[in-house]
Each structure stands twice: as C-alpha cells, then as structure tokens.
Write a structure and sequence with these properties.
It contains 8 helices and 13 strands. The chain is globular, with a radius of gyration of 20 Å. It is about 20% helix and about 25% strand. Helix 6 crosses helix 8. The two termini are about 35 Å apart. By secondary structure, it is α+β, with helices and mostly antiparallel strands. The strands form 3 sheets. A 5-stranded mixed sheet has the order 1-9-8-4-5. Strands 2-3-7-6 form a 4-stranded antiparallel sheet, with no helix packed on it. A 4-stranded mixed sheet has the order 11-10-12-13.
C-alpha cells in the first residue's frame, strides 16, 4: 500500500485501505444500526495479563488457542508504519456492518521471512513473487509470535452541537476506534492476529499484513512540513461546498495554509466527510470542529478535502500528493516554525486531538 507514484495510484490506495470491510459492505447503504455516539465511550486497554502470552508460541498457536474463529471483522485503519513503536488503529465490526464498540481486543504480530530466508523467488520489483510470498506468509504463522498488545477504545463522540448531518445521517459512520501500540523491530511485512473477548468467549482472526517502511514519503514528526496552498471560500467565489463536503460546512477553511506556515501553529486535517472510504472522516472533522472552539485562538485549524472537485472518480488533490498520503484521514500538528510535532493516521477522538494541539502550540 506504499505510495510509489502520485495520482491515480494514490487514489487506488485509498480505495484499498478498508478492503477487509468490503466483506461486510462498508461504504454502502445499510438498514443496520450502529452504536450511538452518545453511548459509545472511551475505555483504557485491558491488562496484558488478561490475554495469553505469546512467549514460546507461534502466531498459529496463538490463534488456535482461542475458543473459536471470530465471526467479527477486525479491520486496520492505517497503512503507514515505521520501524519501532507505532500507533495501530483498527475497527471491530459485526458481519451486518454494525460496529462493535465494547469488545476487549489484543493483537499479536510475527515477522514474515525475508526473500533470502525463503530461498529467493524475487521479482524485478524486488518483491517476493506470489508463490514464495504465500510460503513466507505461512512461515510467519509458524514463526515466533510477539504479544499481547491490548487495545484501548477511543470514542469519536462530540458534543451535540458539533455533530454534522454528514455524520448522523451515515448509518456506517464509526463511533469508536480501537488503538494499541505495536513495536515493529524491523522493516518488511508483519502478520497480525487478533484475540477478541466478548460475552465471556475469546475468538481469533487474522488481519491484513502491515508493511513496515513502505510509506517513507509521508512527512515525519520532526521534519519541516511541505509547503502547499489550501483553498478558502474566497478562492471559489464563496461556494463553501467546493472546499468542504461536511454538511453543514465546517469553519476550518478560512485561512490558506501557506499564509500561516512558519508563522502560526497549524492543525492540518486531511479528510473527506462525504466520501471517506473508512467511514471515520465525518466524525474526526466533527472532533476537530469541537476542539477548534477551545483552541482556535492559539492555532490555525485547516480541513483539507481529498478529491479534486470533491469527486472520488477524479484524482486526489495536489495537496494530498504533496504530503504523499496513502490513506485518510491524517492529522498533522505543526508548530510556528513549520516543524511537524505530531501526526495521527486514522480515526481519533477529542483527547488525542487536544494532545496534538498542545504539541503544536508547545504546551
């Protein structure tokens, strides 16, 4: 899923981020209900001791040790990972598309062997060919596992005044995001398994692999933020619908990023409430709108849409390509010197955004 080239390749990466959710029809219409934003609440991660230790076990043994195979769908909400510790966001869903907002989940990981370890089978692009890759992924299941990495639950709820129609009218809009911290000790592909405890039973499932080091083009914390222009209503004749798909329009589009960069702290949010592949963009723009009311006098808040002309059939906007984003949403907290002080890929709640704001303003 790494960004290799801008343009249509980036658009296809967005479409693939929640490919696992296509199994339950994410993104389409639904009659099923989801948890109400009023009832979905944050919760700390359960203790490691409440899940089996991976010490001396393979990933396959961890999965087979569960009571059953999970009917739930556990879907990653991020693509860009680096060597070391990473925030890993994900969602948990029923087959009918409704979100599970109260499960206890722990993740386990195992490294997929390199091409040398698997005896070759490398294509011209330097990647393993299909046959060797399948064998390597199977070997990863039989290799040593690491974990558990228990997940906390972050609520995406906001105060009623900040809940957009775009969010409340979407039956598939996310209400929580599960997050844990995974420590990837090397670059390459890693297999991931989840143990899910619900109603006293522990079930297991495999997640899509994480490709560590595959999205190196994304600006990192400590680096200078790219220089871009962001559209304002004045640039489009006052037609706010051309700069935001949120209904009603958010207020995070009145300043051009280029005018504030290097002068004021900036919270730059890439998201498209109406066309989000992951169903979390509406809620996170609501979150940003609420936090802006508290910190809008200390930092500039900018919401940047994803697609040209707000049309998913067209390429992503040049601003998205400039940041080389493989997914959405993304939040960048930039200080008054133009240095990135925090970044968040995927969904986040009010508390995490407040932390990002404080990183940008130096509190």
């Amino acid at each position: 899923m790494a960004v290799r080239m801008p343009g249509r390749h980036l658009t296809s990466a967005f479409a693939c981020l929640f490919a696992a959710l296509l199994l339950v029809g994410c993104g389409g219409g639904s009659d099923s209900s989801t948890a109400s934003p009023e009832t979905a609440s944050s919760r700390p991660a359960p203790p490691k001791s409440s899940f089996p230790s991976a010490q001396g076990k393979t990933l396959q043994e961890v999965v087979k040790g569960a009571d059953s195979h999970a009917e739930l769908v556990v879907s990653p909400a991020a693509l860009a990972f680096h060597k070391g510790k990473n925030r890993y966001p994900f969602g948990v869903f029923h087959p009918d598309r409704s979100q599970v907002d109260d499960a206890e989940v722990a993740l386990y990981i195992a490294k997929v062997p390199s091409s040398k370890a698997t005896g070759g089978g490398v294509g011209r692009n330097g990647k393993l060919k299909k046959g060797p890759l399948a064998r390597a992924r199977t070997e990863a299941l039989e290799g040593p596992a690491e974990g558990p990495f228990p997940a906390a639950i972050e609520s995406l709820a906001t105060k009623p005044a900040y809940r957009a129609q775009t969010t409340t009218s979407d039956p598939d809009a996310a209400t929580v995001v599960y997050t844990t911290e995974l420590d990837f000790t090397s670059e390459g592909e890693w297999r991931i398994a989840a143990l899910v405890r619900q109603d006293g039973e522990v079930s297991a499932t495999l997640l899509p692999s994480a490709i560590v080091g595959g999205s190196k083009g994304v600006p990192a914390v400590g680096q200078k933020a790219p220089e871009i222009h962001t559209p304002t209503p004045a640039d489009v004749g006052g037609d706010v619908s051309k700069v935001t798909t949120r209904i009603p329009p958010d207020t995070q589009n009145h300043v051009d990023y280029a005018e504030a960069l290097g002068k004021e702290p900036i919270l730059l949010l890439f998201a498209t409430p109406q066309f989000c592949q992951s169903r979390v963009c509406g809620p996170v723009v609501d979150v940003a709108e609420q936090v802006k009311q508290q910190y809008g006098d200390k930092a500039v808040f900018i919401h940047m849409e994803i697609y040209n002309d707000n049309d998913p059939s067209k390429n992503v906007r040049p601003q998205v390509r400039a940041f080389r984003l493989p997914s959405e949403p993304w939040l960048f907290a930039i200080d008054r010197r133009g240095i990135i002080r925090a970044e968040v890929e995927g969904a986040f709640g009010v508390d995490r955004m407040v932390d990002a704001v404080k990183a940008a303003i130096g509190e």
